[in-house]
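Students often ask why we bother encoding 3D structure as a string. The short answer is that it lets us treat folding as translation between two languages. Here is a chain of 175 residues written in the first language.
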Amino acid sequence: MDPAGRRLAAQPAVGSLPRLADGATANGTRLQIWDCNGAAAQKFAVNAGGVVGTPGAKCADVGGDDNGGNGTAVQIWDCQTYAVDQHWFHQSNGALRTLGRCLDIVGNGTANGAQVELWDCNGVGGQVWQQQADGSLLNPQSGRCLDAPNGATANGTRLQIYDCNGSAAQKFTLS
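And here it is in the second language, the structure alphabet:
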């Protein structure tokens, strides 16, 4: 993202940085390659998604070390800044996406205890998540919340949906 919040879509040569021409921030401003000088016109941020914090101050993680195939379990794991599968994008349609797939309820289920997985994003109701004021993530189709079974926080705990109850097992943060 450039200083005005727009996406950066260029890769500079080694030893140089992109820079906005004369510090301009208007849409359509062309980037220039320039010697690094620390100026505001050279400060960019990359939107790489954010972690989904889970109960126990851990992260929502895709099982299998970043492989992300359909049906892969979504679990609790220690947060790792380098783990691509722990960086989630909250889409405008409510989906949570990582590794090119979405957080999905197995079989588009709605029952208590239905587990979640990674699946191709397809817009079904089992892929919609709404952050609630109490910190829970509600799936409107089921009327249930993302949940750590019995409040478990151990690495490898598979996430599920369960009746929303305001407990610590249902507190998830989107960053």
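Translate back mentally: The domain at 52-174 is CATH 2.80.10.50 (Trefoil (Acidic Fibroblast Growth Factor, subunit A)). Keep this in mind for the problem set.
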